[in-house]
Amino acid sequence: MPSPSYIVGFFFLLLILGFCMQYTDRLILYRQIKPKLDENYKEQEHCKTLDDGKKKKRALNVLTPWLAPIIWNGTYNITMLDAQHKDTRIGLFVFGVKNIKYTGIKLEEKDKELEHCKTLLYDGNKNATNTLQCKDENHQTIPARNRKRALNVLAPWLAPIIWNGTYNITMLDAQHKDTRIGLFVFGVKKYIRFLLPFLESAERHFMVGHNVTYYVFTDKVNDVVKPKIAEGRILQLHHVAADQRWQDVSMRRMETLTVFTKERMPKEIDYLVCADVDMVFNDHVGVEILGDLVATIHPGYFLSDTKSFPYERRPVSAAYIPHGQGDFYYMAALYGGKVDEIYKLSMACHKGIVEDKKKDIEAIWQEESHLNRYLVYNKPTKILSPEYLWDNNLPNGEYIKRRRFIAVHKNHQEVRN
Q1: 28, HSE (Cβ side, Cα atoms, 13 Å)
Q2: Residue 179 belongs to some domain of the structure
Q3: Which of 58, 157, 184, 209 is the 20 to 30 Å CA partner of 123?
Q4: Number of domains composing the chain
Q5: 41-72 b/e (C-beta count within 10 Å ≥ 16 → b)
Q6: Are residues 205 and 287 in the same domain?
Q7: Do both 122 and 234 map to the same domain?
Q8: Same structural domain for residues 261 and 130?
Q9: Which residue would you say has higher pLDDT here, 239 or 91?
Q10: CA-wise closest residue to 158 among 76, 256, 57, 263
């Protein structure tokens, strides 16, 4: 019989072999799952980075969801802003707490830039998350600094340029739940044929759920076919004389606007939107377009350089804009603002039209030329992108993802004559 010492040694050897086999199995298993563990760790780190980005994202933008500009270095043109505020009176209120010793404050002019802000903005725009992502003909993203000014989301004077995705409509609807909104439109002579489609489309897409008053001006009140109007919306029909020339008809709108925004509209509405009748609303147009003074970039010139804008260049005209001045070319088919601001605009434009008539001249694009003159020296506080004014026959449609207010195709010569 083996001695007890041999038996103990044998069992000790079995114990060591068992431990080694268990360790070997665990080592093999670890080697099998280690790549998965590494992959999972990397995924967790990536998700952590994304979460950090989400926390930072909103503050790193240049617009809040309710369209207030977030000021970063390079988002503005200080020369323009200084000119706007040359007569502004500004106060600085300082509160001193007891037992805090005043040590003096030295103000230094320094350009302090964070690493994540090193990408400077072109003409007042930051290449941030809510900046419009534009593609070139090769489907490559166009950097913000090389982008046309109209494709950004902030003008150099910090007015937001409204593109799809730059706002939170729920927040804005809540802000304007009790706002009274007017829609001003002319439908005279043959243009009355466009009135019903215009109003029907407005009922579907314009300020849905809000209080709206339609101000319709026509020379054929009895011929107007009234659409079904939703609750909280009012249709007003007003007679207006029809001028012989379509150019005079378009310019008469400024005269009518001046009268109504001074006498009647201040009692009835808070904001007024002015639109051409030979258009239809094709998609959502809501309270995101409301502001003190709002203008829409002309869809035919939103990628053009300033020097090619069809401004009135004759110094003799009251609509004259010198070369080197101007920011965008605006179209008179859609603009708006607070009633008192539209009164100032219409009064200035009407005055310019009257001055030109006394000289027996007419601005190159009638009321639109005078509108652009006014907006060069009275900057709009909000600018609408060509999404809000489009013609499906125009080029560069790939930039326009939502076509909200579009031109009706027609024979211009037949309608105007």
Answers
A1: 6
A2: yes
A3: 58
A4: 3
A5: eeeeeeeeeeeeeeeeeeebbbbbeebebbeb
A6: yes
A7: no
A8: no
A9: 239
A10: 76
Report how far residue 270's alpha carbon sits from residue 267's, in angstroms, rounded to the nearest whole number.
8
The separation between the first and the last C-alpha atoms of the chain, rounded to the nearest angstrom, is: 129
pLDDT of residue 73: 87
Query: 282 and 381 share a domain?
Result: yes
What is the residue type of 184?
F
Tens of pLDDT, residue by residue over 288-340, are 999 999 999 999 999 999 999 999 999 999 999 999 999 999 999 999 999 99
Q: Which residue has the tokens 């902030």?
A: 154
In a domain, 385, yes or no: yes
Let me know if residue 100 belongs to a domain: no
Cβ contact 334:388 at 8 Å? yes
Q: Spell out a b/e string for 163-196, using b for 16 or more CB atoms within 10 Å of the CB, else e.
A: beebbeeeebbeebeebbbbbbbbbbbebbebbe
On whether residue 93 sits in a domain, the answer given is: no
Statement to judge: residues 319 and 196 lie in one domain: yes
Say if residue 133's pLDDT is above 60: no
CATH number of the domain to which 241 belongs: 3.90.550.10
Considering the domain architecture, whether residues 126 and 198 belong to the same structural domain is answered as no
Instruction: Using pLDDT thresholds of 50, 70 and 90, give the confidence band for residue 387.
Output: very high
- Domain of residue 34 covers 4-47
Verify that 238 and 288 share a domain, yes or no.
Answer: yes
- Residue 355 backbone dihedrals phi, psi, to 5 degrees: -60, -40
Q: Which of 158, 189, 208 is the last residue of a domain?
A: 158
Q: For the chain, what is the mean pLDDT?
A: 82
Beta strand 330-338 pairing with 293-297: antiparallel
Do 256 and 295 sit in the same domain of this protein?
yes
Q: Which residues are catalytic?
A: 368
pTM as predicted: 0.75
- The pLDDT of residue 141 is 52
Question: Any idea which residue has 């909104």 for tokens?
Answer: 181
Q: What is the largest CA-CA distance in the chain?
A: 136
- How many percent of the chain have pLDDT more than 70? 71
Final residue of a domain: which of 158, 186, 217? 158
Q: Where are the alpha helices (DSSP H) in 58-168?
A: 78-84
Q: Position 297: which residue type? A: I
Q: Are 292 and 204 in contact (CB under 8 A)?
A: no
Of 157, 148, 191, which Cα lies nearest the Cα of 297?
A: 148
- pLDDT over 70 at 114, yes or no: no
Question: pLDDT band for position 129 (50/70/90)?
Answer: very low
pLDDT reported for residue 348: 96
